[in-house]
Amino acid sequence: MIARLTAVYVAIFAAVLAGISFYAYWLIGGQYRSLLAPALDTPEGQSGYHGAMEHVLVTIVSADVPVLIAVGLLAYVLARASLRPLFEAREREQQFAADAAHELRSPLATIATVAQAARIEADPQTRAHLDTIARTALDASALIGDLLTLAREPRPGLLQREPVDLAHVVTTCAREFDARARAADLELRVAASGAIVDGDERRLRELTRNLLENALRHAKKTIVLECGGDASAAYLRVRDDGDGIAPGLREQLFQRFAGGDTGGHGLGLSIAHWIASAHDGRLELESVAGAPGACFVAKLPRLS
Amino acid sequence: MRILLIEDNLPIANAVRAMLEARKFAVDVATDGVAGLDYLMRETYDAAVVDVVLPGKTGFEIVREARAEAIHTPVLMLTARDAVEDRVRGLDAGADDYLIKPFVEEELIARVNALLRRGDKPVSSVATAGKLTVDTGSREARYDGLSLDLGTTEFRLLEFLARNANIAFSRSQLLARVWDYDFDGSSNIVDVYVSQLRRKLRVAGGRDVIETVWGVGYKLTA
Asked: Residues B14, A117: contact at Cβ < 8 Å?
């Protein structure tokens, strides 16, 4: 950002300087011509004029270069100084968001932990209430975490990266969801072939889980979970056979709180999108000809 | 099984104690960092659950100081902030695992049990193989005195190979032992890590430290 602003400053100044230099050259040329007017038709006069103008050109350019360098340095200092408050404000904002999230989460942690401990010795009725309390507190805390994530621009610096095999992520998540899928009378089909990405395994599991959660809400009979890769890119695909995404909704699908109608707080897909972007990849809605339902595919750069 | 819990938030401390005691663990609670470190150094525990933010001493400091005194009690860190830096800092300080608050009870118990299983087989904290030393206490690996900058999994793989120097392992054995992968896909993740380790070892002057055993897999030669 500093570099871009510096470049803009330098470009503007260089254009102005070029204009002034050209004008000076043209002005001096005119002066010389009127001075040398009587002799200008002779060969000596001509060569004298050209020699003088060459000298002028060299003088102007050799004056321009150091000025331009000085301006470049000045522009950098200026750009940095003018952007600093902006950076600082952004940093303060992020810090505030992190602090606020922390403050909000602490009491939720107390509620969730105490409720879970209390259920150990509770009767069945009370236990059900305590479960509700604990689950609600855990959900609220997870929601705060998601909001905090989305408040930041996705970038690799927010990940803990290591080479990860997507096939491992897929098989782990499939195992987690298998029982739930069967309980909902759905078949979860898995096809995992090895594809190694430079990724944050925890985040990639979160991405997969979010896509599976979404599929679980919409699928009618089958969910297909696959991963693999070609020479350059790795993919992770989740396809359901639900009603699909209405064309009007596609645009805002990955925006915050877009989901809405069938449960979930609507951040799942936004988070999945954020995670894919942070990995320098992207999350897309694929259309499969003739197949109903939604098909999400995360494309991530493959580790060479 | 005896567990030390260092947590300054009393309601949470009591709740976690109740959860652990319901599983027949004996639990000692310390509510500040200084007392916590003192307990950890004086008594013998099978595992410790340590909060990061504590009065007196932070959880990071407790683990680092305990490790420096050669106390290798497995530690589960509890953090309220879910930031990559925190996780990395915790593991670098010598913690074995971390759990973000609030957590699901079953998750806590599963993590504690995993720590206890790990603690079952006490290993010396420093593995040496030839010019290579891997210190799990300080989480530091050196070749010929030069420090190697390794990621978590790289470190685990190198540690495993160093502890079992001169033994050849197949890729699926390494997947099972180092990664906890229980599938044998077409994955070449082991090769990726081995080539990274080789590159880092070469920078430190170590050539052919990890050998390819044709038809089997890899071994570290000492």
From this structure: yes
Residue B61 shares a structural domain with residue B76: yes
Is the dihedral angle over the CA atoms B193, B198, B199, B203 positive or is it negative? Answer: positive
- Cα distances from B209 to residues A151, B167, B191, in angstroms, run 45, 13, 15
Is ipTM beyond 0.90?
no
Reduced to 3 states (helix: H, G, I; strand: E, B; else coil), residue A35 is: helix
**The last residue of a domain, from among B120, B150, B173:** B120
Buried b / exposed e over A267-277, threshold 16 CB at 10 Å, is bbbbbbbbbbb
Low-confidence ranges of chain B (pLDDT < 70): 119-124, 180-187
Asked if B134 and B146 touch (Cβ cutoff 8 Å), the reply is no
Compute the count of residue pairs across chains A and B with CB atoms less than 8 Å apart.
96
Q: Distance (Å) from the C-alpha of residue B11 to the closest C-alpha of chain A?
A: 7
Counting DSSP H helices and E strands in chain B, the numbers are 8, 12
The residue count of chain B comes to 222
**Vertex A267: Cα angle to A172 and A218 (nearest 5):** 65
The answer to whether the beta carbons of residues A232 and A302 sit under 8 Å apart is yes
Asked if the Cβ–Cβ distance from B188 to A194 is below 8 Å, we say: yes
Half-sphere exposure of A191 (CA within 13 A, CB side): 9
Measured at the CA of B215, the angle between CA B213 and CA B219, to 5 degrees, comes to: 25
Given B120, B145, B163, the domain boundary residue is B120
> Whole domain around residue B75: which residue ranges?
2-120
One-letter amino acid of A66? P
Q: Which of B22, B82, B183 sits opposite A145 (nearest CB)?
A: B82
In terms of domains, do B165 and B93 share one? no
Q: Per the structure block, which two tokens stand in for A300? A: 């991530």
A26-76 confidence digits (pLDDT tens): 998 888 888 877 777 788 888 888 888 888 889 988 988 998 899 999 999
CATH number for the domain whose boundaries are A158-301 = 3.30.565.10
